[in-house]
């Protein structure tokens, strides 16, 4: 996994470890996520959603930037272009 989502994932793991579902009921954190989601605190549910959104954003090609945007300067003329009648001077 990319390091951009690692902080969210670590926070989610920590939240699950300290939740009542794991501490008092003795369930596994994965079991709490799958079967006991309504028993988790709001913080853990929010972190789960944020982790999901982060992972989805890494895979969603519509949101990925593959190159740097091109800056367009208005009013700049290319002075190095030869004119057709100047071609005889450089032959």
Give structural notes.
With 91 residues, the protein is mostly helical. It has a domain at 3-59. The chain contains four helices and no strands. This is Cytochrome c oxidase assembly protein. Keywords: Disulfide bond.
Offer a quick outline of the entry.
With 91 residues, the chain is an all-alpha fold. The chain is built from four helices and no strands. It has a domain at 3-59.
Question: Keyphrases for this structure?
Answer:
91 residues; mainly alpha; 4 helices; Cyt_c_oxidase_assmbl_Pet191; Cytochrome c oxidase assembly protein; disulfide bond
Shape: elongated
Total beta strand runs: 0
The end-to-end span amounts to: 59 Å
Q: Roughly what is the average pLDDT, rounded to an integer?
A: 79
- Helical fraction equals 40-55%
The largest pleated sheet is described as: none
So how many helices?
A: 4
Percent strand: under 5%
Radius of gyration, in angstroms, nearest whole number? 28 Å
The H/E string reads HHHH
Tell me the structural class.
mainly alpha
Parts with pLDDT < 50 across at least 5 consecutive residues: none
Pfam family, one: Pet191_N
Family: Belongs to the PET191 family.
Protein name: Cytochrome c oxidase assembly protein
GO biological process, one term: mitochondrial respiratory chain complex IV assembly
